[in-house]
Amino acid sequence: MTETTDLTQHASGRYPLLFAPQRWEWGGMDAQFSDRLPPDELITNIHLVGFADELVVLCRDARDHWFLPGGTREPAESIASCLARELREEAGARLLTEPGWIGAHRCVTDRPTPYRPWQPHPEKAWLWGWAEVVVDSAPTNPDDGEEVVEVRAVTLAKACELLTRGREPWWAELVTFAAEQRAAAAEAAKH
Fold it and tell me: What's the CA gap between 87 and 46, in Å, rounded?
């Protein structure tokens, strides 16, 4: 994993909701997004804005909650292995390109024990990235994961709408930031 580049310069001014301090009550966590990547040992969760051509791949669970595919690392699991597994489990998808990492939420929990025994505590990080993907099978829906009832590739605008439905508006900024980074990387590849 490499440090972010000038592609993210001044991102906090363009995406103030994403970069603002947050409280995630469901996990008892204070979170802060940064485009500086955390050390590997702090990364407990990996999520991806997957692009299928110009569309964003989203998953919907049985509670009618739309989300980006990704999830929790298993003991000693690499970032690459976790991402590949979570894409298959939740979206029936696989990577076509290496992910571009846009940043991470650095989190500190006030819970007395870690979410999983092997995770760092009380500090951890949620890594966010983007990549080209293909949806080529059904989600595997393991017993210990979310029950995905639908996978849909939608426009960026629709992804922003679905991800923020009943949730914090920073989700739209996250997906838009990923699309911006993707476009910048494509432009840089031309030169």
Answer: 10
pLDDT in tens, 124-154: 999 999 999 999 999 999 988 889 999 999 9
pTM for this structure?
A: 0.92
In CATH, the number for domain 6-190 is 3.90.79.10
Q: Taking Cα atoms as reference points, which of 133, 167, 128 lies closest to residue 55?
A: 133
DSSP string covering 122-188, please? SEEEEEEEEEEEEE-S-----TTS--EEEEEEE-HHHHHHHHHTTS-THHHHHHHHHHHHHHHHHHH
Q: DSSP state, 3?
A: -
Instruction: Kindly tell me the burial class for residue 61, based on how many C-beta atoms sit within 10 Å of its own C-beta (0-12, 13-18, 19 or more).
Output: middle
Given a cut of 70, the residues of the chain with pLDDT beneath it are 1-9
Q: How far is it, in rounded angstroms, from Cα 178 to Cα 184?
A: 10
CA 20 to CA 23: how far, in whole Å? 10
Tell me which residue of 170, 190, 186, 187 sits closest to 128, measured CA to CA: 170
Return the domain boundaries, the chain.
6-190
pLDDT tens figures, 171-182: 999 999 999 999
What is the rounded average pLDDT for all residues in the chain? Answer: 94
Length of the chain: 191
